[in-house]
C-alpha cells in the first residue's frame, strides 16, 4: 500500500516513463493478458489490495524466481507510475549484491508483474521471533547488518530513501546454512531532492522514526532509525517500541521509551548496544549515517572478518564507483533488449512505458500466454500475513 501522489520529475518513475523501455539495461517488458488465482507467498501484503507474490520456475532452465503481481488501479486511482518508480529503483540498484535483482517485467491490462530474484531463505523475521536456540547469534547479526548497511549506503549515495526497512523486507538467500541478505519492497521509497522537503505519514508503526510522527521533514536519516530498531530486534527478538496498540507504539517512539536492560540484552556485547544507541536518537542529524555505521567497531572487529567478506566489500566498492545515477537511468531508457537466454520463438511484442495507461490492441490476443509459456507457477510456500501500515 503506497501513498498515491505523483512522484516528482526527478524520481526514477518519471525517468523510467520517459524512454522507449523500462530500463535500457536489457530488461524486456512483455504484454499479455491477466492471470488469476495468484497466492501471496513472499511479501507480507494483503492479497487483492496491493500485490501478491508467487514462486515461479523458468521452464527452459528450471531457475526459480518470485513473480510480484501489482494492481495498476487501487481504490479507483491509477497507480501505474508508482509501480514504475519501484521498477526504476530496482534498476538503479541492479549491480548491488544486497538488493533483490529484477529479472523481467510483464504488463497486463490490470496488473504489472515483476519477475524477481528468488530468495529461498525467506524473511529474517522468522529468525527474529524464533526460540533462543534457533535465533540469530550476534556474529550472524554482525555479518548480515554489514550487508544491509552496504545496500542502504548504496541507495543513500544515489539519494534513495527506502522508508520501510523492517525484518519482513529483508530476505535471505538461504536458511541453512545462513545465506546473504536481499533488501526488497521499494514501494514506499522516495528520491530525496536537495531543494525539496518531503513530509509524509508512511511506514510500519514499530519502525517509523519520530520525525514521521511529528510530520517533520523525512531524510536519509529516517532509514537509519529503522536500522537501529531492526538491529535491536535481530539481537534480542524484542520490538523496542511495540505497544498494545498503534497509539501506545507511537507514544513510545515519541517519548523514546525503550530499554537496554541486561535481561533483554543477555549475552549481547556492549559494542552492539553502543551501535544501536547511535541510531535510536531523536534528532535525525545526530544519528550515524550508513557510512559511519560501517566504520563502527562492532562491525569491523578482527574476529568477524572472513575472506569472502573482503571480496564482497571490494565488489561493493566497485559498484559504488561505477553504479548508475538517476541521470544514467534517464539517459539509458532508449531500448529494451531481450536477454541472451531467450530463444527466437520467445520474442514477444515489447511494449514501451508511457505516461498514460498502456493502450490495448488485438495483438494482446496473440500474447495472452506469454508468461505461462516461459514460467511454471507453483503452490505457495508460506502463509499470507497482511502487513500493517500507518496510513
Compact summary:
With 391 residues, the chain is of the alpha+beta class. It has 13 helices and 13 strands. Residues 1-48, 303-321, 329-368 and 379-387 have low confidence and may be disordered.
Summarize the structure in words.
Keywords: Apoptosis, ATP-binding, Kinase, Nucleotide-binding, Nucleus, Phosphoprotein, Serine/threonine-protein kinase, Transferase. It is an enzyme of class 2 (transferase). Its main location: nucleus. The protein is an alpha+beta fold. The chain has two domains: 18-118 and 329-377, Phosphorylase Kinase, domain 1 (2-Layer Sandwich), CATH 3.30.200.20; 122-322, Transferase(Phosphotransferase) domain 1 (Transferase(Phosphotransferase), domain 1). Helix content is 30%, strand content 13%. It contains 13 helices and 13 strands. It has helices at 12-17, 80-92, 125-128, 138-157, 210-213, 220-236, 246-254, 270-277, 290-294, 307-322, 326-331, 364-367, 370-374; strands at residues 29-31, 51-58, 64-71, 73-74, 77-78, 102-107, 111-117, 122-123, 160-161, 170-172, 181-183, 190-191, 375-377. The strands form four sheets. The protein has a six-stranded mixed sheet with strand order 1-6-7-3-2-13. Strands 8-10-11 form a three-stranded antiparallel sheet. The chain has a two-stranded antiparallel sheet with strand order 4-5. A hairpin with a 5-residue loop joins strand 2 (51-58) and strand 3 (64-71). Helix 4 (138-157) packs antiparallel against helix 6, helix 4 packs parallel to helix 10 (307-322) and helix 6 (220-236) packs antiparallel against helix 8. The longest helix is centred in the middle third of the chain and has 20 residues, at 138-157. It starts with 11 loop residues before the first helix and ends in a 14-residue tail after the last strand.
Amino acid at each position: 500500500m503506497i501513498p498515491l501522489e505523483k512522484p516528482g520529475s526527478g524520481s526514477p518513475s518519471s525517468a523510467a516513463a520517459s524512454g522507449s523501455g523500462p530500463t535500457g539495461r536489457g530488461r524486456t517488458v512483455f504484454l499479455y493478458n491477466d492471470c488469476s488465482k495468484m497466492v501471496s507467498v513472499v511479501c507480507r501484503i494483503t492479497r487483492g489490495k496491493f500485490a501478491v507474490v508467487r514462486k515461479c520456475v523458468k521452464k527452459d532452465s528450471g531457475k526459480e524466481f518470485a513473480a510480484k503481481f501489482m494492481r495498476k488501479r487501487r481504490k479507483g486511482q491509477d497507480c501505474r507510475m508508482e509501480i514504475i518508480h519501484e521498477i526504476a529503483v530496482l534498476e538503479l540498484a541492479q549491480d548491488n549484491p544486497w538488493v533483490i535483482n529484477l529479472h523481467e517485467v510483464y504488463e497486463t491490462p490490470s496488473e504489472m508483474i515483476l519477475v524477481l530474484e528468488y530468495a529461498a531463505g525467506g524473511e529474517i523475521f522468522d529468525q527474529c521471533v524464533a526460540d533462543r536456540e534457533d535465533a540469530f547469534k550476534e556474529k550472524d547479526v554482525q555479518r548480515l547488518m554489514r550487508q544491509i548497511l552496504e545496500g542502504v549506503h548504496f541507495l543513500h549515495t544515489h539519494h534513495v530513501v527506502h522508508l520501510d526497512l523492517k525484518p519482513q523486507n529483508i530476505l535471505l538467500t538461504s536458511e541453512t546454512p545462513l545465506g546473504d541478505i536481499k533488501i526488497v519492497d521499494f514501494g514506499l521509497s522516495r528520491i530525496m531532492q536537495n531543494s525539496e522537503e518531503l513530509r509524509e505519514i508512511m511506514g510500519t508503526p514499530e519502525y517509523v522514526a519520530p520525525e514521521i510522527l511529528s510530520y517533520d521533514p523525512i531524510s536519509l536519516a529516517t532509514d537509519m532509525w529503522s536500522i537501529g530498531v531492526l538491529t535491536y530486534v535481530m539481537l534480542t527478538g524484542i520490538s523496542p517500541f511495540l505497544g498494545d496498540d498503534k497509539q501506545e507504539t507511537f507514544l513510545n517512539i515519541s517519548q523514546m521509551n525503550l530499554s537496554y536492560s541486561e535481561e533483554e540484552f543477555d549475552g549481547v556485547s556492549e559494542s552492539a548496544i553502543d551501535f544501536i544507541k547511535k541510531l535510536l536518537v531523536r534528532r535525525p542529524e545526530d544519528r550515524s549515517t550508513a557510512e559511519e555505521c560501517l566504520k563502527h567497531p562492532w562491525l569491523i572487529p578482527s574476529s568477524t572478518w572472513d575472506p569472502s567478506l573482503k571480496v564482497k566489500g571490494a565488489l561493493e566498492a566497485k559498484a559504488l564507483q561505477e553504479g548508475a545515477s538517476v541521470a544514467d537511468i534517464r539517459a539509458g531508457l532508449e531500448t529494451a533488449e531481450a536477454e541472451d537466454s531467450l530463444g527466437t520463438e520467445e520474442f514477444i511484442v515489447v511494449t514501451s512505458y508511457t505516461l498514460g495507461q498502456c493502450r490495448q490492441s488485438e495483438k494482446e490476443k496473440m500474447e495472452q500466454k506469454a508468461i505461462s509459456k516461459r514460467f511454471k507457477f507453483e503452490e505457495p510456500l508460506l502463509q499470507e500475513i497482511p502487513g500493517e501500515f500507518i496510513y
